Amino acid sequence: MDYQTGFFYLFAAVLLYAAYRVVTARNPVHAVLHLMLAFSQAAALWLLLKAEFLGITLVLVYLGAVMVLFLFVVMMLDINIDSVRKGFWRHFPLAAVLGGLVAAELIAVLWVGFPAISGGAVAAADTASRSNTHELGVLLYTEYLYPIEIAAVILLVAMIAAIALTLRQRKDSKAINPGLQVHVRAKDRLVVVPMAATQKAPPAAAAANAAEEGKA
Questions:
Q1: Where are the domains of the chain?
Q2: Topology of the domain covering 1-79
Q3: CA pair distance 172, 178, nearest whole angstrom
Q4: What is the average pLDDT across 28-40?
Q5: What is the torsional sign of CA 39, 40, 46, 48?
Q6: Which of 13, 17, 63 is nearest to 25 (CA)?
Q7: Which of 5, 85, 139, 165: CA 20 to 30 A from 116?
Q8: 53: Cβ–Cβ under 8 A, 6 or more apart, which residues?
Q9: How confident is the model at residue 200 (pLDDT cuts 50, 70, 90)?
Q10: Is residue 7 within 8 Å of residue 48, measured between CB atoms?
């Protein structure tokens, strides 16, 4: 057994352990951390398969952005573990059926394999001098152009919907519009209302006031 096979078994074992802990961990933060470990091992497997672009993308996109966001969200939420696990056995049959369906699809794909690229040895010899990143880009933007455009439109709609849900006005919010503050005039905020005295001044105070007015 060479060193590549040894690294493959090592990364695969750690990946299976991390995936198992994602499902069985009682603490959501621990589950997210194990999911990050699983993604890192999957990226290492991509590197062993000489798919550097996919491995680096997995690290940058998922470990560097998505999982960090998940970790912050999970740490900010006040999750009651006991209430979450109450309906486990009630939803277990549906989860088992869906898990079995996904496993059957994966086994079918791995068993049948992928269709061979047209051209055979000529195509293999032609692509040997080019990087797999170049070949992946050519394949995505030629044969799979329409699925990529559909996925881009779906992501754009999801982003617009998230912004719309975030920016909608709430009645219980006390936000201040700076534009309205700039155009405010003093007379709109302060009004001086003349009011008569409700109580007469005592005689001594009245005489003192009159003396002061006479001196002035």
A1: 1-79, 132-167
A2: Four Helix Bundle (Hemerythrin (Met), subunit A) (1.20.120)
A3: 18
A4: 87
A5: negative
A6: 17
A7: 5
A8: 132, 133, 136
A9: low
A10: yes
Report which of 25, 32, 19 is spatially closest to residue 76, judged by C-alpha positions.
Answer: 32
Contacts of 127 (CB under 8 A, 6+ apart): 135
Cα distance between residue 187 and residue 193, in whole Å: 12
Q: Using CA atoms, how far apart are residues 63 and 38, in angstroms rounded to an integer?
A: 10
- pLDDT-based confidence at residue 144 (cuts at 50, 70, 90): confident
pTM for this structure? 0.53
Cα separation, 15 vs 78, whole angstroms: 28
Q: What is the pLDDT of residues 75-117, one digit of tens each?
A: 777 666 666 667 777 888 888 899 899 889 888 877 776 555 4
**What gap in Å lies between CA 44 and CA 57, rounded to an integer?**
12
